[in-house]
Amino acid sequence: MKIQTILAAGAMTVAAVAAQNAQAGAVLDGIKAKGFVQCGVNTGLPGFSAANAEGKWEGIDVDVCRAAAAAVFGDANAVQYTPLTAAQRFTALQSGEIDILSRNTTATTTRDAKLGLTFVGINYYDGQGFLIPKALGVSSATELDGATVCVEPGTTTELNLADYFRAKGMSFEPVVIENINEATAAFFSGRCDVYTTDASGLASIRTQMAENPADYVILPEIISKEPLGPVVAQGDEQWSDVVRWAFAAMVEAEEYGVTMENVDDMKANSTNPGIQRLLGVSPGMGEALGLDEAWAYNIVKQVGNYGESYEKNVTAKLGLERGLNALWTDGGLQYAWPVR
Amino acid sequence: MSENAKLPPLPTGTFSERAVAWSKKNLFDGWFNTLLTLGSIAFLVWLIPPIVEWAIINATLAPSIEACAEATGACWGFVNANLRLILFGTYPFEEQWRPLLAMIFLMGIICGSLGAVKYPSLRKAIIPMWVIGVPIIAILMWGGVFGLTYVQNSYWGGLPLTLILSSIGVIFAFPFGLLLALGRQSHMPAIKTVSVVYIEVIRGVPLITVLFMASVMFPLFLPDGVTIDKLLRAQIGIILFTAAYLAEVFRGGLQAVPRGQFEAGDSLALSYWQSMRLIILPQALRLVIPPTVNSFISMFKDTTLVVIIGLFDFLGTVKLALRSDPAWTKYYVEGYAFAAAIFFLICFSMAKYSAYLEKELRKGEQR
């Protein structure tokens, strides 16, 4: 706790200094000068950011960085990745080591306001849940009084867990294990009654790690809101706009049904004014952002729309349906700000 | 001839007679040893067959998730399928010949340096080898010149990173530790105090704290816009940490050299550095070979801690591979077993070399 306090104090000082020194466009100019976007990613979370067998970074978080690079340079591969642990991630962003932090980071008030960060979008709506063995005979989280709970340290997960049990007047015994493999192994070997993390994680752990997935259930209670999204440092509004709209363009492309496959056809033939604006047929959007008019076209062409990115990474790797992350027209929460 | 008289009489009889005699003497000598022998045999019989069955008989090497799901034993296919990711981390796939070459090169220099004990002609070549070799390794890894594409060191990983961190760590920690040890013995109060405070402070904190400070706290104190490379910070942290431990090892050696040796140096009118170089250190360092190698082995294994600051050493890349696809995640035992085997191989070689070195350097004392 102490270290975190010191870190937060240090971070605030840096943020204050950074805010004074920053000039509009300083980060974006730096990115253009060096020719690539430096992107902070998770050290390994399948579906979000993980290295494939060839050592290339893949995932829905990685795609946000690729989209930003496609918008700025017209080349989604103009990205360099810095894998970061949970403890390091904000320092890396504040000190300028990275340009975007796209590392399944929950947007919260303190992070946004106190740490000098700007959350530019939510690319995954998640929430914390509980995984238990069926044999425990529990059907609701309210029956978990006195349970031993396996949890990973240093994240909002641990805090939410404590909050939830305190609010319900229940006690629990935390088993804090740093490594996800060991934490899940501890759970499946029966060292704890409950495993808690974000629901996306629980689903993949249940299907991939359990001997027999049917022996385990995810309790219906979701105890927290975890809006995960890309973050940039405060101080360069032009750069935060680029990342915000690069992500918005991915969602809007899905809303319009523009895909990697049909984007060329859409660009040439579509008469829909919204699509024409998005793909730069009727100019203005690129100019407003200080980018090439083909910025959104490049994103869709090289990275795909939001749905494609989700299918390719989250559904394929974790077997998770869209759920909260479906478009608003399909009953989800993904609702793009209009590109106009 | 007289030496032969000390040797035991040569064994006689058939092979089986000799075998019985040998085992009676060595394995069933009294009730306690008999019990121990039988207990050990029972333990091995209980332990080994299941391991062999798991690791070899029922195992599969096929690099496919389907084959692993069918196999009842170990899934070495996980290692097989992700071998390059495990060995080289996220280094660009098409360029992985570069870390491979750099690693071979580094091993060559290390072997050349270690071989100098046996082949004195190599001794003069040690410094030139490192002075030329390290830049070549750096060029191979970083690139950016001679038509090699530039590769940021946030992409370095796997075995080359582990070897680089530990060998650069040894090269710099050794002289630094030596200076600290001499400083602690110094008659000059300022130098002595600085050395003592440094050693005690560093020894008082865990390496993980040093790395964490270097990685998370340190950048906050730098002026805006200035960043020092993450790998460099970790490397310096490892050097500073190891040097403090080595300093205490060397101090032990210095204290074990008889006082008369120091006085002999003085009476020959040798300067401080001359007497250290010619008389004291050769004796002191030879005395502390086992604990020095001990420190190196523990440092080699400690490099795995860099995983907490987001660098992928060899153990880190195994974890990376486990998370490359959720379907592989459950084969972590195979992954860690493979990492353990490689670590054992390297650490055991270091221990063996240290034993050999002791024997070689003690030849002067054996008559």
From TrEMBL, chain A:
Annotated SUPFAM superfamilies: Periplasmic binding protein-like II
BP GO terms, sorted: amino acid transport
Keyword terms of this UniProt record: Signal, Transport
InterPro entries: Bact_solute-bind_prot3, SBP_3_CS, Solute-binding_3/MltF_N
Pfam family, one: SBP_bac_3
Record domain Solute-binding protein family 3/N-terminal: where: 36-266
Signal peptide location: 1-24
Cytoplasm among keywords: no
Family listed: Belongs to the bacterial solute-binding protein 3 family.
Protein name as it appears in the record: Amino acid ABC transporter substrate-binding protein
Species per Swiss-Prot/TrEMBL record: Thalassospira tepidiphila MCCC 1A03514
